[in-house]
Amino acid sequence: MVLTPGPNMIYLVSRSVTQGRRAGLVSLCGVVTGFLVYLVAVNSGLSVVFLAVPELYTAVRLAGAGYLAWLAWKALGPGGVSVFAPQELAGDPPRRLFAMGLVTNLLNPKIAVMYLSLIPQFVDLRAGHVLLQGFVLGGIQIAVSVAVNLAIVLAAGAVAAFLARRPRWMRVQRYVTGSALGGLAVALALDGSRPASAV
Fold this sequence. Notes:
mainly alpha
C-alpha cells in the first residue's frame, strides 16, 4: 500500500529533486505528522464526527480530489514536467516544506478510512487495551511508511539522473504519474461511500 504512487510520494520526490535530500527529509517530517494527526483523530473518534457531519467528510474528500487533480494537471497540462525533471525553483524554507508535507497528507481522507477499515481487523478485544492496540498498529503502519518514503527521498536524485539521460523514459513516467493522479482524483470525487461503511 505504501508503494502505491500518490500525492505524498510525488511531493517528496519533487522536493528531493529540486531542493535536495535535506528538503525531502523536512517534507517527510510533515507527511509523518499528517499520519500522526490521522492516527490520533481516528483513535479519538474521527469516525463519529464524520458520521455525525457527513458534509465534513464530503468537503475533505472533495478538497483531496481537487488537490490530486491539480497535481495531475501539472504533470499532463501544457508545459507539464516529470517530478524527476530538474527544475529551477526558489527554495522553500523548512517551515513551508514541513507545512506542505503536512497538508499534502491531511488532504487525503482515505488515510482516515484506511485506519478505520484496516486496523480494527487486527485488534484483539479479548486482549484488552483496545486504544493502545490501535496506536501500536497505527505506529507500525507509520514506521513502514517512513522507511519506504525515506528510501524514496534518498534515491530521488539518482532516479532523476537516470531519467535525465533517457528523455523517453522521463516522458513515459510523466504521463503514467499524471494519469494515475487524474484517475485517483476522479475516483475520489465520485466515491459516494460513507465513513460508516469502513467501520
